[in-house]
Amino acid sequence: MVTQLSHPFSFNFQSTVNLRTSWVKVTAMANHKVAHVLSVAGSDSGGGAGIQADIKACASLGVYCSTVITAVTAQNTLGVQGVHGVPEDFVYEQLKSVLSDMHVDVVKTGMLPSIGVVKLLCHSLKEFPVQALVVDPVMVSTSGHILADPSILMAFRYLYCREELLPMADIVTPNLKEASALLGGMKLVTVADMCSAAKSIHDLGPRYVLVKGGDLPAPLDAVDIFFDGDHCHELRASRIQTHNTHGTGCTLASCIAAELAKGSLMLPAVQVAKRFVETALDYSKDIVIGSGPQGPFDHLFKLKRSTYNSSRRRGFNPNDLLLYAITDSGMNKKWARSIIDAVKASIEGGATIIQLREKDAETQEFVRLAEACLEICHSHGVALLINDRVDIALACDADGVHLGQSDMPPRVARTLLGPGKIIGVSCKTPEQALQAWADGADYIGCGGVFPTSTKANNLTVGLSGLKTVCSASKVPVVAIGGIGLANAHSVMEIGEPNLHGVAVVSALFDRESVSSETRKLHSVLMDVLSVAK
Ligand SMILES: Cc1ncc(COP(=O)(O)OP(=O)(O)O)c(N)n1
Ligand SMILES: Cc1nc(C(=O)O)sc1CCOP(=O)(O)O
Ligand SMILES: [Mg+2]
């Protein structure tokens, strides 16, 4: 019988036993197998290659990555300043720890700094067999630095060939220099050379060979050769003009491993991996990390999104809800002004947060509008939220979204947007308000406080409904629906500390001058605030 734990942190023997029993039950019930790659590789202090690249690549493709660190390197964008091997018995210790417990699907190897480490790895893989082995024979990094002791370089061929690593491999992914070293110094200068090298490496035992041609003399396309035992496939991709290529080899091999762990066949896994690297290089081509000739790239497609240079880096402040302006394309069209001009005017008048509510905009136009409005908002330190469309918010890196009860669930939106974005949820009842809080909303919009013609068939909750929701809500509230100059003070005066402002559409945008209407409403709100103090 599984005893319920009244307090998970009351630590005595009996509760430990109960905890274990419950855990077994929970895992059995959950039964959600996670694809898992073990990376056996060296650490790159610069974060662009090695273990660090492997973890990021797997994470980006939705695969768990555990690690066995074989060496610690001191390196940056200038080169490799030092290599410090982890003692072999401790590499073995790590291998046993992970492989004996964690149900690894695929092992991917990178820097293997000694024959002893290769032997221990082969021994461990016999003791704990996995679904696939991806060998990136790291000897020469993309920058041309030798990541092994000279004696290792001498023994490189022996290391990979004689100690059974290559015969155990499902795929080996040498670059031109590594392929040449594996074949005892064979010269590789053409695509035909690469194909015959792939065949010769295949004779050493691996099931598939990918010879990477990134170093071929200046062709237009990047060409890799994939040999499946029968045929050489030329895999071409456009060459991205960038110096941020550090870690491409490790990343490619990790992506192959990740796709295999998800159940892919080999050629599709290689194709996805190549697409990933190409997309990441293109995304990262102009980022600047370090002063050396070869920088890292962004595996997670997020670094350019950081608000490093933006005036909006302060997170969500409930006081931003004070004068919440919501756009309406129909109204702005009626008054012959663009949404961008309308947003500008409302900020001039004192709007404290903007929501783009463009129900009829085509997606491409919506992205363009949102990008332009974001620039205006951020130059004034004002947050921009997108109504309904999480995809638009993601595409333009807006500050957040506002979601209704039948829009995307806030929890799903949170996983897509990340923890730093603002999520608002429309609520008409205390139950909805509590649920919004439980789902991670930052604020709720409550209405319609008064009847409105802006939103069809909208239920009016009145000031009493607003009061009930405000007193139940655990997050700040903004009131919405039929609010304008004439009644804003009555809304703000309901005496609920949780009510932080009013959200308005027609009172600002269905008027001739957006800036002066906003200014007047702002002044009403400031008067209410000053009386409240
Ligand atoms: C601040 C604020 N509150 C409520 C709403 C209404 O959102 P929703 O219920 O999803 O209705 P639509 O606006 O999508 O028609 C809002 N937009 N903003
Ligand atoms: C978009 C919207 N949501 C509402 C809700 O009750 O959730 S009322 C509303 C329309 C608000 O427009 P106006 O300020 O012109 O009345
Ligand atoms: Mg909505």
For the largest beta-sheet, the strand count, sense and barrel status come to:
9 strands, mixed
How many domains would you count in the coordinates? 2
Number of strands: 17
- What structural category arises from helix and sheet content? alpha/beta
Supply the number of helical segments. 20
Gap between N and C termini: 59 Å
Please give the radius of gyration in angstroms.
30 Å
CATH class of the largest domain: Alpha Beta
Low-confidence stretches: 1-28
The proportion of residues forming helix, as a percent range, comes to: 40-55%
Enter the CATH topology name of the largest domain.
UDP-N-acetylmuramoyl-L-alanine:D-glutamate ligase
Q: Give the CATH H-level superfamily of the largest domain.
A: Ribokinase
Bound molecules: ligand LCLJCK34, the ligand Cc1nc(C(=O)O)sc1CCOP(=O)(O)O, magnesium ion
What's the mean pLDDT score?
89
Query: How much strand?
Result: 15-25%
Shape estimate: elongated
CATH architecture assignment of the largest domain: 3-Layer(aba) Sandwich
InterPro entries: Aldolase_TIM (IPR013785), HMP/HMP-P_kinase_dom (IPR004399), PM/HMP-P_kinase-1 (IPR013749), Ribokinase-like (IPR029056), ThiamineP_synth_sf (IPR036206), ThiamineP_synth_TenI (IPR022998), TMP_synthase (IPR034291)
Domain Pyridoxamine kinase/Phosphomethylpyrimidine kinase: 44-293
Protein name: Thiamine-phosphate pyrophosphorylase
Cofactor: Mg(2+)
